[in-house]
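Reopening closed ticket. The problem is back. First fold of the pair:
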Amino acid sequence: MPEGPSIVILKDLIKELHLGKPEVLEVNGNAKNFDKDRLLHEKIADFKSWGKHFLICFKDFTVRIHFMLFGTYLINERKKTRLTLGLVFKKDELNFYTCKVDLLEGNVKEHYNWENDIMADEWNSKSAIKKLKEIPEALVCDVLLDQQIFSGVGNIIKNEVLYRIRVHPLTKIKNLTPAKLKALVTEARNYSFDFLKWKKENTLSKHWEVYSQKECPRKHSIEKKELGKTHRQTYYCEKCQKLYHKT
């Protein structure tokens, strides 16, 4: 599943094209939960990202693309996989595969709060801390995947952040010290921008310290279990990452 930084890369790639504010000349694909003809001859106002969502903004509505687990895209290329949505312009085309596509009416700002977006300039760390304190029984491995708190954080970032701050994934929010709670929020954003940098360099996996690893940098064995309410695969080091209890 693409994480927030990967969607930012897509947004930047498209904006680097000589698209300007292009008119949609052709719409293709098997997306069926809205009238694709509505996009015809409409001009794109902007491309945005919010967490794991890629947003194609028009004057009165927005097309939201969620890549789910296996979604992909191609710019000015096509492949044999069934097309979910394809947009053809005068000089370029955008093709999206194996993804979920929805149409949002009205201004996109009515649907999203960018203070939750870990990659956004509007990101609000104080708001994130406040929301975390409201769910004291939640596990840190779950809250990092909560898109209403850390929009854009996915499983890779979750695992790497918890190792970076040396916190066991089964620690409850209420048991974190104030310093560790702040570190959780701070490093979620810091690692996301590191992810972005390494992804652009095509070196992301070389920097993984626990994700898909057998040993941590200190040569301790890595545990691999499905943890928390999300049951997502979690990689962690029992020796490096402390399980905080109520004191």
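Second fold of the pair, where the issue appears:
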Amino acid sequence: MATFVLVPGACLGAWAWDDTVRPLREQGHTALPLTLTGLAENADQGGPRTDLDTHIADITGFVERNDLRDVTLVAHSYAAAPVTGAAGRLGDRLERVVYVDSAPFAEGMRMLDLMPPPAAEHLRERVEASGDGWRLPFEDVLGLSSSLDGLDDSRLDQLRKRATPHPFGTYTQPLTGLAEPGDDVDRVLITCNDFTGLLDAGVPMLAYLNQPPWRRFTLATGHWPMTSAPAALADLLDTAVS
């Protein structure tokens, strides 16, 4: 059985994994969702200085404090950035890294680099106007989502009610000091509708993800599978570690 550490995407807390954690535990796995600094129950710990390094330290600190071994580290969406940073620092504690509708970051890369300059500038303006200069509103994150497939009104309303403005410093700070996980670390992708289409289309910058050592699983839903298809996501995670 595996030990999963599940890291949620932007504006979400550990709560976002509830409906995925339940079936994973029923299957016999250890499933430990994590809330990053400045979000959900840790909202009051965030501030203008909360950045990508903060969230990397959250992940490594969680694993080390709990003396976790043979960890399967799971990143959804934004969490790909801090998980990429943490994965190379966990040494032999890490058995596997799983990117859920996301992909690893490169040295020097920022979240803002994933969007066109006008969209990045719009986010900056929104943070200044509505987020006290450091918090990114959830509606802006939702507006950038590649796909809301599978989210009915009830599920979308749940996301909106429970989401927390996201510390914008984690979007503006580049990932630095990157260390690659060891060659023995298993590398897994779980791709949802739009990202699956990009990989199947053979986008050159993503071509390496279609080759070993990467293993890919697909899930026919939108960008928020822990809400739109949590049981199916749990089954794929179980399959990936079996």
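Update: turned out to be a display glitch only; the data is intact. The beta strands are 3-7, 30-33, 71-76, 94-100, 135-136, 166-167, 186-191, 214-218. The chain is about 35% helix and 15% strand. Please close again.
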